[in-house]
Amino acid sequence: MIKEPGTTSEKLPGDDRLYRRLFEASTYAVLVYTSSQIVAATPAAVRLYGYSDVSQIIGRHPADLSPPKQADGLDSRAGAASHIREAYASGISHFEWLHQRADGTTFPAEVSMTRLDFQEGPVLRATIRDLSEQKEMEARLRQRADSLEHRLHERNQELLESNQALEREVAALQNTERALSDQKAFFKQLFDASPEGIVLLDREDRILKVNQAWLDIFGYQVEEVAGRTINELIVPDMLEQEGSALSETVLDRRPVQAETKRQRKDGVLVDVSILGAPVLIGDDQIAVYGIYRDISGQRRMEEESRLAAAALENTAEGVMILDRDRRVVKVNKAFARITGYGKQEVIGRPMPFRSLQRERGEDDRDIWRALDQDGHWEGEVWNRRKSGETYPELLSLSTLKDGQGQVSHYVCVFNDISEHKEYQRQLEFLAHHDTLTGLPNRTLFQQECQQAIGRAKRSGKVVGILFLDMDHFKTINDSLGHPVGDRFLKDVASRLKEVIRESDLVSRFGGDEFAILVDNIDDPEDVATVANKVREVLSEPVRVDEYELAASCSIGISLFPADGEDASSLLRNADTAMYRAKEKGRNCIQFFSADMNARAYEELLMSKALRDALDQEQFVLHYQPSVCLDTFKIVGVEALVRWEHPEQGLVPPSTFIPLAERNGLIGELGRWVFREACRQAVAWRDQGLPSLRMAVNVSARQFGQRHLITELSREIDSSGMLASDLHIEITESMMMENPDRARRTLEAVARMGVDIAVDDFGTGHSSLSYLKDFPIHYLKVDRSFVMGLPEDQDALAIVRAIVAMAKNLKLKVIAEGVETARQRDLLAEMGCDEAQGYFFSRPRRAADIAQLLKENRPLP
């Protein structure tokens, strides 16, 4: 006897009987048929279809075991023919099918067809699994065993009777041998071609034979499994007890069915379903067979379905699923939270609410039409809750289709966007309104102004623009702080709204600038009336805490169509007129005129010339000596910038410094002054002249820049100047603009070894506490106090107080604007350390200062 691969040497019945027994003992319903008739059927198939004998099935067309029509309306005979053709063509076909029992009842089944090729021609093996009666396996196995025993007995009787004649016995034996050989091949193909993994075990749980499907499931080769026990191969340690229990049950001649985990060769656990049963010949149990199915994919799908259901239930968006008739079949928790409807109130009913208004003006029919056409619709709608409250929502509708491409369900996902809408409204408001006062901002003002101009063009009316700038507001901010300034501006805004008409508009552009749009007027005098009302309402002081603050303003006015054809032109011209009002002394009204445009153009040309001057090195430094009041000798100079214009000559700083501050060139100009002053100080030192202090003024814009310290350090290092020879001058207002930042900046300067002076001391509006908090070395008394000495007793008292305070704080004092010997002597008598002024020297060029230093004589 030739040993099959994967078997043991234990004596077994003939293979033909074994394969036939396996086929007939199969608990699966199996049919074998050609394209037109059934040629073999397992007893399980006979029982599954409700027939009493296999002869009632043999010879029939496979479609005869089905109702005339399938559940989807497909003709059963045509459908069966299609699947049979597919199986013959591809070798396998797997599908679900509606079958019919002998009593006319139907049942769904899973059909797996495999083509088997024989010498006589191919046949189809079909495994039919009743999806509704899987747990009746044990009864069917016992019934099948009895039937098999009876048939074997009948066969033996026929063989005994055939032995009566030697010739007939030989012929019968030969015929039987051929039949058994065919059966062996037949059942072997059924075994090998099964899509389920099949294993045959002996009574010691050792593997006798496995098919390829089983090997594929667990990743083994056939030579690796022969003779080994099933538990040692595929049962993980944690399930060893379960595996032993299943084996004992089958060896006790009881079938088992389980869903569990088994271990592949690579150690990976795989989900499987197991069907195990004894193989009996008569009363003898000769083996055990097991059928394994890899259900990992099924478990993954179940887990994905569970996760999808959990996500659906717990998502923040409301979800509602409708059937094809648009009746609710499922909702989630967010649905109830958003709409107020409970699940039981809506399941099985039409949509419980409908949109009230849509952004795009679509009605329900338009939405459903778009949904059926495109499979999706999304938009914003207004809906009503159960309480009757309306709310905006973002709604998304999608269709789900079945296998035939027909719509089976609708999925509605929606979200309450009330907060989002409110946030959008707030953003819209913030984009077009001032956050401090709530007034329209420049953007909204220009839009409204342009619309007013359009109306005026059609009606022939006049539009007026009032541009307001509060007088001395910077002083309020610098001296009392931004919180007081903010409350002051809010009061001003409130007053301005009181004096305008409903058709007019007041706006804050930023800082202390306001604008008023006067619409639909006949006479420009009406605009002047509004301007006078503004001045009148602002004439009363603004009270903020214990402070009474003056609220005067400068007003510039431009008119359409006289002063411009668009909003930008009118605003620009009103702004120009406002600056003319400030030049006239503030707290006044100025209408725009053509010559103002000329001045603005002239300033534009001057700005260009100023930029060219920087590029073409037209600036020079003059130096004004600072004299020690003990020796009257030069101890320092203050660097003062001058513009040598190639056509206009020497342009005074009062002309170009304010312009540089307005057009942003003051920073670049200030850096040049630093660089040139350091270079000149080193040049004097290299000439062997006496050491002196170089004072440089720092503009407010420079002082506010983050890189001031870096630039200052770079200029000192690159020039070779000693930091102790440099002296920077700042104003009180610069320190009080942002005291914390100013302190940090000045401390960094002082750490470099550079002295710091407060210029124009006494003119600022700030607390004197900063004198002890800031690293200050010098106070420079403003010339406005020195000029009145000695006659002006108030000025005299102020200067005495400044000098005395400085001495107590160990600060040095420099007096500016000294023009007479009496002033010099009085300041020296007070204890003032140094003085500057025309009495000693006007600002001079570097060469002149060098000569004075060489002479080293007292001044004047």
Strand fraction band? 25-35%
Overall structural class, as computed from helix and strand content, comes to: alpha+beta
Unreliable runs: 1-13
For the biggest β-sheet, the strand order reads 24-25-27-28-29-30-31-32
- Rg result: 52 Å
Oligomerization: single chain
Shape: elongated
Tally of individual helices: 31
Fraction of residues in helices? 40-55%
Mean pLDDT: 84
Distance between the termini: 139 Å
> Tally of extended strands?
32
Short description:
With 860 residues, this protein is of the alpha+beta class.
3D architecture notes:
The protein has 31 helices and 32 strands. The termini are far apart. The radius of gyration is 52 Å and the shape is elongated. It has 860 residues and is of the alpha+beta class. 32% of the residues are buried.
Per-chain topology:
Blueprint: H1 15-25, E1 29-33, E2 38-41, H2 43-48, H3 76-90, E3 92-100, E4 106-118, E5 121-130, H4 137-162, H5 166-193, E6 197-201, E7 207-210, H6 212-218, H7 222-225, H8 230-234, H9 240-251, E8 256-263, E9 269-281, E10 284-294, H10 296-314, E11 318-323, E12 328-331, H11 333-339, H12 343-346, E13 357-358, H13 364-374, E14 376-384, E15 390-401, E16 407-416, H14 418-432, H15 442-459, E17 462-470, H16 473-480, H17 482-499, E18 505-510, E19 513-521, H18 524-537, E20 542-544, E21 547-549, E22 553-560, H19 567-583, E23 589-591, H20 594-615, E24 619-628, E25 634-645, E26 649-651, H21 653-663, H22 666-686, E27 693-697, H23 700-703, H24 708-719, E28 726-731, H25 732-737, H26 739-751, E29 755-761, H27 770-773, E30 778-781, H28 783-786, H29 793-808, E31 812-815, H30 821-830, E32 834-835, H31 846-855
Parallel strand pairs: 22-23, 25-27, 27-28, 28-29, 29-30, 30-31, 31-32
Antiparallel strand pairs: 1-2, 1-5, 3-4, 4-5, 6-7, 6-10, 8-9, 9-10, 11-12, 11-16, 13-14, 14-15, 15-16, 17-19, 17-22, 18-19, 20-21, 24-25, 24-32, 25-26
Helix pairs in contact: 1-5, 16-17, 20-21, 22-24
